[in-house]
Design brief:
The protein is mostly helical and about 130 residues long. About 85% of the residues lie in helices and about 0% in strands. Helix 2 packs antiparallel against helix 3. The protein is flat, with a radius of gyration of 17 Å.
């Protein structure tokens, strides 16, 4: 699959999931929502952000690729992993905010945790 095709698929998926998320945003009443509705809400939010962040990271890294000489497969792998991690960070933060559990120290703890996960993957690849 060419990079252009991959970006087109990611953009289409991102638009479709974003439209579904906006639909759910206006259709679900948070007071009377069931757990499955909340799960669907957060799942579509997570997947839409993953597609959005992954396509953005691929575009940014592709423009810098000529300087680094990074293979295209590694560029896509890194972008997908970091897009998933960042989308998960934002989704967990939104969930904690909705439960009024998000504070500066829980934010710092989450960022540190996700930073350590990324550091693990970065050092694992070098070994």
């Amino acid at each position: 699959m060419k990079l252009r095709d991959l970006l087109m698929v990611l953009c289409a998926v991102s638009l479709l999931l974003s439209a579904l998320w906006v639909f759910l945003l206006f259709r679900i009443d948070p007071v009377f929502a069931t757990r499955s509705e909340f799960l669907l809400f957060y799942l579509t939010f997570l997947l839409a952000l993953t597609a959005l962040f992954t396509s953005g990271l691929i575009l940014v890294r592709h423009h810098r690729r000529e300087e680094d000489g990074m293979p295209l497969v590694r560029l896509v792998q890194w972008s997908f992993r970091q897009g998933c991690l960042f989308a998960l960070l934002v989704t967990i933060s939104l969930f904690l905010l909705s439960r009024e559990l998000l504070s500066w120290w829980t934010s710092a703890l989450l960022i540190t945790l996700f930073g350590l996960v990324e550091l693990f993957f970065q050092t694992k690849k070098r070994s």
